[in-house]
Structure formats: structure tokens, C-alpha cells
Amino acid sequence: MAETRAKLIDAARRAFGTVGYADASMDDFTAEAGLTRGALYHHFGDKKGLLQAVIAQIDAEMSARLSVIAAAASDPWQSFVDENIAYIEMAVEPEIRRIVMRDGPAVLGDPSTWPSQTECVRSMTASLQRLRHEGYVTDIDPEGIARLLTGAGLYAAQWIANADDPAATSKRAVQAFRALLDGLLATDAHPHRSA
């Protein structure tokens, strides 16, 4: 069962990443996996369910990468900055651009309602609570700021994913997002500024 599921996700991920969700043929990618449409329906319900599984896999990989980036930072504030900026910068990667940032919202609806975004808000709220407690940021409402930053990061990533020049748009988005983050810093506690 797990092997069949993995084969379908891999084949669909290649198809969605190459030709996009709309043009990906269920018959082509099930045949590539050596399986039938019946297997797809059994495991995922339909093509949309398979897209959700592909996005969940990519989201998990993105989260793992972001955790490594955050852990490598020199202090808690830089960890927070690096993790947020890396998320935005990932939107230039072709697979993330097409599957997560473009096809996902077109097929599955508003990404702010996806389970991964709910987890992102929860995690960011906890990080902001720690940063506030440790004196890195001003006295803010951690959940409110987490929701605003999560929305800003998601919209920045979608801006990049839909831009004619994703690399140039990424630079602009990162610069603007850094300005937002710098506005949170406590002026008297830590002189750290995101570089």
C-alpha cells in the first residue's frame, strides 16, 4: 500500500512539475508508475486529492530545509529572519513555483486555509513569544504578528511565483520583507539587524 502510494505521488509530482496540474494526464502518470486509475482513486479519491498529497510532501521537504537553515543561525533573531527569508526565496524554485504557489491555490483554494499554513502560524507565534520574552522584539501580540507575517510571506512567495522575472521579484520581496521584520526589533535590547 505505502509503495503504491509513493509511486503515484512520485509520478504525479514529476507530471505536475513538468506540465502543470491542468495538463497532467492521470492515464500517463498512472501508467508511468505501473498502476491504474483505480489505484489513484483508491488512495487519493481523485486527481485533486493526489495534488494535495504532492503538496503535503513538498511542504514537508520545505519545512525540513527551513529547520536546517534556522538551526544554523548565530542567534534566535537571525534564525527567525533566515527561516522567513528562505521560505520566500524558495518560490523561485521551479517545482515549488508551479505546484505549490500556482497550481495549488488555483485548484485547492486559498493557501491560508491549508493545514501547513495553520501549523506555520502556530510555530511562528511560538517563535515570536520567545523572541519577545528574550528581548529581541518589541512588546507585540505574537499571534497577530505571526498571522500578518505569514500572510505577507505567502503573498510574497506567490508574487515571485507568478512574476515574469522570479529572481528579480524575489530580491524586491526579500528587501521589503526584511524591512517589515526590522520594524519588530526592540531598539534597546539587541543591536542585531538582519543583513
Automatic annotation (TrEMBL):
Name of the protein in question: TetR/AcrR family transcriptional regulator
Domain of life: Bacteria
Residues covered by the HTH tetR-type domain: 2-62
InterPro entries: Homeodomain-like_sf, HTH-type_TetR-like_transc_reg, HTH_TetR, Rv0078-like_C, Tet_transcr_reg_TetR-rel_C_sf
Coiled-coil regions listed: none
Membrane-spanning intervals of the chain: none
DNA-binding segment(s): 25-44
Keywords linked to the UniProt accession: DNA-binding
